[in-house]
Amino acid sequence: MTLNDKKAEVTLPSDTQILITRAFDAPAHLVYKAWTTPELVKRWWSAKRGAVTIADIDLRVGGSWRWVMVMEDGFEVAFHGEYRELNPHERIVFTEVFEGMPEGEALNTLTLTAKGNQTTLTLLVQHENQEHRDAHVGSGMEAGMQDAMDLLEEVAISLM
């Protein structure tokens, strides 16, 4: 899998980590805006698998976020966390908890590297243990993440 085919590359750098890397044809400040603006999150986070009903974002260090989606079959999926570090247009460090597995909190580091109107997004997901990492990988998250990243790019481009 290469960045040229517009798919995210997913690797497992350690027993507790997931690393996602994807290139976007949009400037970093617009990818950041699409990731941190509630009405924009509602346009991409569903990955065409339902509807985002809640995208609460208190974008400040110590602030919280919570995103909820109702799947096409009616199943509700919710995640929440806290912002630990914010460097606008470049880096967000935040916790992430899948509410269906509240003991599996992860620490995520999202980095946006700009090169002209292109951006490389890297998302390092750090789990507490291999069991939680493997549950995350085994959840089928990759297919949904790929579709969500495609939509994230579409939203970012629409802001140009």
Describe the structure.
α1 (28-36) packs across α4 and α2 packs across α4. It is built from 4 helices and 8 strands, in the order ββααββββββαα. It has 160 residues and is an alpha+beta fold. It has an 8-stranded antiparallel beta sheet with strand order 1-2-8-7-6-5-4-3. Helices cover 27% and strands 42% of the residues. It has one domain: START domain (Alpha-D-Glucose-1,6-Bisphosphate, Chain A, domain 4), CATH 3.30.530.20.
| Main β-sheet, spatial strand arrangement | 1-2-8-7-6-5-4-3
- Proportion of helical residues: 25-40%
Radius of gyration: 15 Å
Shape estimate: globular
Assigned CATH superfamily: START domain
Per CATH, the architecture is 2-Layer Sandwich
Total domain count: 1
Oligomer: single chain
User: Count of DSSP helices?
Assistant: 4
Quick tags:
160 residues; 8 strands; alpha+beta; Alpha-D-Glucose-1,6-Bisphosphate, Chain A, domain 4; 8-stranded antiparallel β-sheet; 27% helix; 4 helices
Please sum up the structure shown:
With 160 residues, this protein is an alpha+beta fold.
Helix-strand layout with pairing:
Blueprint lengths: L8 E3 L5 E8 L3 H9 L1 H7 L5 E8 L6 E8 L4 E12 L3 E8 L7 E10 L2 E10 L2 H9 L2 H18 L2
Antiparallel strand pairs: 1-2, 2-8, 3-4, 4-5, 5-6, 6-7, 7-8
Helix pairs in contact: 1-2, 1-4, 2-4
